[in-house]
Design a protein that fits this description.
- This protein has 220 residues and is α/β, with parallel strands linked by helices.
- The protein has two domains: 4-88, Rossmann fold, CATH 3.40.50.20; 95-200, 3 Solenoid (UDP N-Acetylglucosamine Acyltransferase, domain 1).
- The protein has helices at residues 12-24, 55-58, 73-88; strands at 4-8, 28-34, 43-44, 47-51, 64-68, 96-97, 102-103, 113-114, 119-120, 125-126, 131-132, 137-138, 143-144, 149-150, 155-156, 161-162, 167-168, 173-174, 179-180, 185-186, 191-192, 201-202.
- The strands form four sheets. It has a seven-stranded parallel β-sheet with strand order 6-8-11-14-17-20-22, with helices on one face.
- The protein is globular.
- It starts with a strand and ends in an 18-residue tail after the last strand.
């Protein structure tokens, strides 16, 4: 583990990465990195913003590691692209695991962002460049492939395989012993009981607004 860390990004996820790494790890955040065309300011979180095009001139791969702090835009395509681009530069990546997560598997890849209150059971395999937001359950013997994004309070049961770049929305439930294909979108509140082909999109209907307004209710 290299203690000097560079964070790619300058959005809310990058701000959260700065907070979590600073508060819960020994890493020293040296700078934020962006593509030159997107740099509008000289600093972020009181740290300098450096163009990715000049990163190797300033930061040695022997002393510095990276964290890609991007969301799920393009069904995780942008985060995947930047992860692979930085990897070609020869940098290693750090993973953040919250001290308030329950981790019973050691098979966790690099550039993962694992928030508080996640439960990861034994024999789970978590590949590279994944985000697990807070409060998820990842069941035993499941595999989450590269570049996935798991929102909050998702239940993934045992022996489930999640294909790369898949997005799973909040409060979704995945039953045991099924496969979710690559680059799928499982919307908020979905219940998945069967195998899911590649590139599938699932979504639940939103709740219906009542014709009665709250000021007309006599009981609640």
């Amino acid at each position: 583990m290299k203690k000097k860390l560079l964070i790619f990004g300058n959005g809310q996820i990058a701000e959260l990465a700065y907070f979590y790494f600073t508060k819960f790890s020994d890493h020293k955040i040296e700078a934020f990195i962006l593509d030159n065309e997107y740099i509008k300011e000289s600093s972020f979180c009181e740290k300098p913003i450096i163009p990715l095009e000049k990163v190797k001139e300033k930061f040695s791969t022997q002393e510095y590691s990276f964290f890609i702090a991007l969301g799920y835009q393009g069904v995780n395509e942008i985060r995947k692209k930047k992860y692979l681009e930085v990897k070609k530069h020869g940098y290693e990546f750090e993973t953040f695991i919250s001290p308030d997560a329950s981790i019973l598997s050691k098979d966790i890849g690099d550039n993962c962002f694992i928030f508080e209150n996640n439960v990861i059971q034994p024999k789970v395999k978590i590949r590279n460049n994944l985000t697990l937001w807070s409060g998820n359950h990842i069941g035993h013997h499941s595999t989450l492939d590269d570049h996935c994004f798991i929102s909050s309070h998702v239940v993934i049961s045992g022996n489930v395989n999640i294909g790369e770049q898949t997005f799973i929305g909040i409060n979704s439930t995945i039953r045991d012993n099924i496969n979710i294909g690559k680059k799928c979108i499982i919307g908020a509140g979905c219940k998945i009981l069967n195998h899911v082909p590649d590139f599938s999109v699932y979504r639940e209907k939103t709740s219906t607004r009542s014709i009665i307004t709250s000021d007309k209710l006599k009981k609640i």
